[in-house]
Design goal:
A hairpin with a 4-residue loop joins strand 3 and strand 4. The chain has nine helices and twelve strands. By secondary structure, the protein is of the alpha+beta class.
Length: 394
């Protein structure tokens, strides 16, 4: 009898254990998954403050900020942006030597606070004496150097580390100076606007870029002193009145050149430009996709029917478009187009494309997009085009 009872108890114990586990971990158990409980939450009435209690003492824990957009129009539908393609080489994308308008500089896809210690490390490992640093402005100056085989001169470098035009990017500009070896080394240095020797500037750029690229996988340090570099963006989408404007903190020549580069990339094509007037005449293809840049295997060997088709073009030249602008007499238009004289009041028929207008002076550049008659675009369209131009800036 005792053995029979023990055998029954042994059979019942797993069943009890299983039942207990289901009560603990099942859908109705004590330790059930509560990850989706917020979907069943109810909206409760706001807290009522009792009489005699000051209202100012009670505040929302998670306040929702007010909308500060100047225009409230919303598009009826939205397109999810395509993800950026992965690069074959992370180092190649992270460190580049950019060339634009006769200038060269290093572009690093990292904030200045991370690049600063890498530059200091490069100078230290190569025994390049540093005589001046200013982490706030991002300036490093070396002492006087002697190149092998050159007994007549002595050389000096000035490195400017600053925020890039794209978020979380850094530009390193190198300035080279060469003087007679007998010139006194002490006293104030009058740095030239451009490097004295382009070849020696290129040497520093190439060596520094290669070192930063090779250190990219191991160096994760950041400088607290250099965190003030790039606190303000070089490029910002803003508004002038009701019109969207792209503001660039760049010298004018650099701004003109980088906007010209931007409107020749991707879905943009340039029909004409006038640097004196400060206008690019462009087209935008809304059907453009990245796949159009990479022809297929057979297309590369045998070609395709589309190759014989000409690119988009305008029936009017930029000079014709500028001579027939339809400008509303406003203070903004008078300021923006004061250097343009329209010779005819008769509008041209169906002017295609857009006018990209670059205005301002060093460190205060404004970029606008207008239609072919220089009339304001709808805000959403103007913002879309300006954001695409911003993405292409270098």
């Amino acid at each position: 009898m005792i053995k029979s009872i023990m055998r029954r108890s042994a059979l019942l114990m797993p069943l009890v254990a299983l039942s207990g586990c289901s009560n603990l971990f099942g859908p109705e158990g004590y330790f059930r998954d509560r990850g989706d409980d917020y979907l069943k939450a109810d909206v409760i009435a706001p807290m009522q403050v009792p009489a005699g209690v000051e209202q100012q003492k009670v505040e929302q824990l998670y306040a929702i900020p007010a909308i500060v957009e100047r225009d409230q129009e919303l598009a009826g539908s939205f397109e999810v942006p395509r993800p950026q393609p992965l690069s074959d080489s992370a180092f190649t994308d992270r460190v580049k030597i950019q060339k634009l308008s006769g200038r060269r500089w290093i572009l690093v896809s990292a904030p200045p606070a991370e690049v600063w210690p890498q530059v200091r490390g490069f100078l230290s490992r190569n025994n390049l004496n540093v005589v001046f640093t200013d982490a706030t402005s991002g300036v490093i100056e070396t002492g006087w150097l002697k190149f092998k085989g050159d007994e007549e001169t002595k050389d000096k470098y000035r490195l400017q580390i600053e925020q890039g035009v794209q978020p979380d990017s850094t530009e390193i500009h190198v300035l080279h100076m060469s003087v007679d070896k007998d010139l006194p080394s002490k006293g104030q240095i009058n740095w030239p606007a451009r490097s004295i020797n382009g070849e020696r500037e290129s040497w520093m750029l190439d060596e520094l870029a290669a070192t930063i690229a090779s250190d990219s996988g191991s160096s994760q340090a950041a400088s607290l002193l250099a965190q003030t570099i790039g606190l303000s963006d070089k490029v910002k989408l803003d508004a002038e009145g009701e019109e969207p404007v792209l503001r660039l903190v760049l010298e004018y020549n650099r701004a003109w050149a980088t906007v010209g580069h931007a409107v020749r990339q991707g879905a943009f094509s340039t029909w004409g430009s006038d640097e004196v007037v400060g206008v690019y005449y462009i087209d935008y293809d809304p059907e453009y996709t990245d796949e159009t840049e990479e022809p297929g295997f057979f297309s590369r060997w045998f070609g395709s029917a589309d190759e014989d088709q000409p690119e988009s073009s305008s029936p009017y030249s930029l000079s014709e478009v500028l001579a027939h602008l339809q400008l509303e007499d406003t203070e903004s238009n008078r300021k923006i187009f004061k250097s343009i004289k329209s010779g005819s009041a008769d509008p041209l028929d169906e002017v295609p494309g857009y006018l990209v207008v670059v205005r301002g002076w060093n460190d205060s550049i404004e970029v606008r997009v207008r239609d072919g008659y220089a009339r304001n675009l709808p805000n959403q369209e103007a913002k879309k085009l300006l954001n695409m131009i911003r993405h292409n800036l270098i």
